[in-house]
Write the structure tokens for this entry.
Amino acid sequence: MSRSRAKKKQRRRSRAGAASGPGATAQERAAARTQARAPDTAPQSPPAAPQPRPPGRASRLDVRDGVARPDAVWAPFPLTEIGMAVGLALFALGFASSAIELFLTGVGVLVVVVAELCLREHFAGFRSHSLLLGLLPVSAVHLGVVYAGAVTWRGPLAVALDLLLAGALAWWLQRRFVAARGQAQVAR
């Protein structure tokens, strides 16, 4: 709600409160409520254009706990966003047409783009993606081993080993994130 609308609402409430004091009759209170609900007949000025943010103040999406969102190497060019759009389009098209090649290509593009974004944010100290980054390489290696022909690599032992490796990698990644966040907060 804009400030001008909030002020008008507050004025209406104060008028209604004054007319509905302890000595007011039921008719006076009803009239005050009706007047408070009625829109002001005063000429309204056109809404003010939104003011741009001051140059020193960043968006809450661009700064997290005092750490700025890291830019990509290709910063002004939106390659990550284009990759996500292409991946989603291929994923949806493959899903809708039951074309497994398009579906898997879309999944692959999305995995690469999201992994790049997560790595960049994680190692800059902006946001922790320890679990995702820990599970991703372990899952990729497991998938490669299964498709390479080692079909015996399954069952509870394989899951336990995968989780152990992913947990160890996530623990190391979390330590790296904490160190990166400390350096980024000192640098500002």
Remarks:
- The chain has a mean pLDDT of 79.
- Residues 156-187 form the longest helix (32 residues).
- Helices lie at 3-19, 26-37, 79-97, 100-123, 130-147, 156-187.
